[in-house]
Design a protein that fits this description.
Two copies of one chain form a homodimer. The first copy, chain A, has twelve helices and twelve strands. Chain A is an alpha/beta fold. The first copy, chain A, has three domains: about 45 residues, no CATH class; about 120 residues, 3-Layer(aba) Sandwich (Rossmann fold); about 130 residues, 3-Layer(aba) Sandwich (Rossmann fold). In chain A, α1 packs across α3, α5 crosses α12 and α8 runs parallel beside α9. Chain A is elongated, with a radius of gyration of 26 Å. The interface between A and B is large, with 47 and 47 residues. Chain A binds a DNA duplex through α2 and α4.
Chain lengths: ~325, ~325
DNA sequence: AAAATTAATGCAAACGATTGCACAGGAGGG
DNA sequence: CCCTCCTGTGCAATCGTTTGCATTAATTTT
């Protein structure tokens, strides 16, 4: 029983088209009629039915945002950027989660496709991209954030992972550290790979041999940080410097260290990525590369918006942000 | 150019209605036709256009979730529960943020109304409820989570705040502590109020006089926890025990303490609410009441779903969860 | 004053799906 | 052999908007 254009038309004695035109700001309607209609609309509490409008206009002013995990502060900072930016142009955002698996991701994409979103921003959960390509291909613009996929070239917004992790590792080396352990994220994921490259590059440029037992990959989540740090500390000759690929693994590592290596605060050093609210509580972390999370979202949203508006320039566009630096003292 | 029922109809030589019936599982269609149609639909990559369907059926299978801040782990855990639960019934969730202000909240609600959501789950940013009532009133079910509003009675899912905070404060008192400082959340918000009541009640039952200078209200965010803890510690006769109303204020407080009161780890004690990934890194926090965040979301979603299906029983229903207990050692 | 232009509004189709009703043809009952 | 009853399918209206085109009245031009 929401009030429709028809109701207003009936009440004011003009046609539905006239009401529609008034409410969409068509100047061709007499001031007289405009007033009458507007007043009636207001009084009756009219609200446009965007479902009907979308059907006619073939535009839903809705975009989809798919990420691996909705409770993840990092992803949600990106989502915030997206939401803020797109809200200004009248878009809303449907947030879906892939729960870190490709089937759920595909399911989410299917639903969003059926909801006829105008565009998609995806933080893919793996390197697989075929399902994205199949579902959206050319019909609907897709922007990737934070990660790329194989088999599907499209716009993306990333950070300079390799350079940042090179800098972190190189920094440690310059301070005379030679045995730097690497705690990686999910190896399938762009950012994890690139951060690993940066690590390798730093070793190489400083002529340090790679020690395979100092390299371990987790999944970017807490538990893997905890477990890998534990393993490292239980080695016969444990490393004292650590590169940790993201915040959540850092939390895990710090938790392990605070539980079992409390007294070694001055011996052990962590460098890594990101800076969150609780980061200053870390005892072992010295320096981190901070990704501009909200800005990544904002940029992805801007890019998507351009594509939705039909701009085809320089496709596919890969945009890379530099990180900021945080020193924990 | 997505393929429509019409396209399939044309291709298979049957009418649009028949195609529709086949795809919606109507058994009255001959097996013959069913096969033909299904095969064509699959081959052509048909996906229902839910915009059109929604218009006809007056059901969007979309619900709105409005919360004060999307990057807030607490709210997003609730959102996760909502999303998980509703996904099972084929709903998607549009997540909006009010940025902790009523105008934005109202704006989000208006948009969701125009998008014709089937229902709303709201974590209101204040005690104001008129705008919700006006926009949705009876037309669309609304469930509140975590907080209530004035002027609008509707279903809600909360926790037993008062009992939990009573227990925390009472616990400290039973250990002989008498000067317990209170770091509250935003006073306008249900949970902040109720936690304060619990504090007062514990003092009262133990015949401890309230000291107004030990009571301060913040806004549930980090900075307020930091600032208030600082103020307390800079008193001439600083308290040694603290009740902190939520996780984020705890982070702030812990940050202050780690910066400026590092050596007092054994003297100072914090109790409070919530337990997040980084909570085990807290040095001063002893015991917390843990809200079942995901379960709150799940329950809110279930309740909303019932209302959408037309169940009017026991309206308005206020459901309260008990907290769990976490001891940090 | 007739013709041409402009201004204000209405008609009706369209978007893509769902669904009540009608209808054709075949089966079964009397 | 006619009447009734299924079975399978199609017709057409409908959901609430938007919008090209037609229409009418008023105004301007010549």
């Amino acid at each position: 029983m929401p009030v429709t254009l028809k109701d207003i038309a009936k009440k004011t004695g003009v046609s539905v088209s006239t009401v529609s035109r008034v409410l969409s700001g068509d100047k061709a309607i007499s001031v007289q009629t405009q007033q009458t209609v507007r007043k009636a609309a207001k009084k009756m509490g009219y609200r446009v039915n965007t479902v009907a409008r979308s059907l006619k206009m073939n535009r839903t002013y809705t975009v989809g945002f798919v990420c691996p995990e909705i409770t993840n502060e990092f992803f949600m900072k990106i989502a915030k950027g997206v939401e803020q930016e797109l809200k200004q142009s009248g878009y809303s955002v449907i947030i879906c989660t892939s729960n870190e698996n490709v089937e759920d991701e595909a399911r989410s994409l299917r639903i969003l496709r059926e909801k006829c979103v105008d565009g998609m921003i995806i933080i893919p959960c793996s390197n697989e991209g075929m399902h994205i390509k199949e579902l959206f291909g050319d019909s609907c613009p897709v922007v990737l954030a934070d990660r790329l996929v194989d088999d599907f070239k499209t716009d993306a917004v990333l950070v300079n992972n390799e350079a940042a992790s090179f800098d972190l590792v190189d920094g440690l080396i310059k301070k005379g550290k030679k045995r730097i352990a690497f705690l990686g994220g999910n190896e399938l994921i762009t950012s994890a790979k690139e951060r690993f490259s940066g690590y390798l590059k730093a070793l190489k440029e400083n002529n340090i041999a790679v020690e395979p037992e100092l390299i371990r990959f987790g999944d970017f989540y807490l538990q893997s940080g905890y477990d890998i740090m534990k393993d490292f500390c239980e080695m016969k000759n444990p490393p004292k410097e650590f590169f940790i690929s993201n915040y959540f693994m850092q939390v895990g590592a710090e938790r392990y260290l605070q539980e079992y290596q409390k007294n070694k605060e001055d011996e052990l050093t962590i460098v890594g990525f990101d800076n969150m609210d609780a980061s200053p509580l870390f005892r072992f972390t010295e320096r981190t590369a901070v990704q501009p999370m909200v800005a990544i979202g904002t940029e992805a949203a801007r890019l998507l918006h351009r594509r939705i508006e039909g701009d085809k320039e320089a496709f596919p566009l890969i945009s890379r942000f530099d990180v900021d630096w945080n020193v924990n003292d």
